[in-house]
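Q: Two folds, back to back.
A: First:
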Amino acid sequence: MLESGEAKSLKEIAAREGIDNSYVSRMVNLTTLAPDIVAAILDDVLPNHVTLFDLAVDPPALW
């Protein structure tokens, strides 16, 4: 939505979808995950102590 210009901000996306701004922000954070982390999620081999919520709130900054 942002890329296409359909929405101008995360806040606008949240309003359109009827969800909280912070949820939209967390989901956008997931788009920056390193490929090996994405692979671990898809292969269901992410360590038990690491949750998707943890990754969404505070994603690793370095690949």
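A: Second:
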Amino acid sequence: MFSNYFLTGLWIFLFFWVYSTLFYVDLIALMS
């Protein structure tokens, strides 16, 4: 059960990192 929670947290962290990276790149594209 511990590994299941760890895997879920890892997927959430990965999704948040990709989303924030895309948002940052889009923000730079709008600025320039």
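Q: And?
A: Residues 2-31 form the longest helix (30 residues).
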